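Look over this record as teaching material.
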Amino acid sequence: MTVEFALARAPRYRVAFLRWSGPWSDRKVRSQFEAVARWARANGLRTGKWVFREPGERQWETGIEVPRGGRSEGRIRIRTLRAATVARAVFDPEVVSPEVIYHGLNDWLRWRRREKKIRAVGSFRELYSGNPWTDRKAWSRTEIQYLVRR
């Protein structure tokens, strides 16, 4: 499998999300995604991309893209992630280890900074086209994005 790193313009995403703090836990990530999916189903909302973010140190957000019309309710919040320039890589975690992609993308971004092609690198996010635990196609097209400033 070939993995390409590229600078691209990411669209705006309107996301229903849950946020929590604490240590990393795959079980927690999955349960939070499922809670947001249940909320979207209960409110009759179509869903789009599944988004996982780390907006701060040991803070996590799991969210699902929703159309206009959904409102925050309980612990579920609605937020619009602005359109932005991102460094991205799309890969299959069954073929290429995510650690390799993260390290490679970090090194690639470091060289772009040295070459003055970008000014700063922000937080990362992972995007899936559906539920990565039940949809093999969504899992095989994992996308990692780092926000960058030119």
In short: The chain is about 25% helix and 40% strand. The longest helix spans residues 26-42. The beta strands are 6-10, 13-21, 50-56, 59-65, 77-81, 84-91, 120-128, 142-149. The longest strand covers residues 13-21.
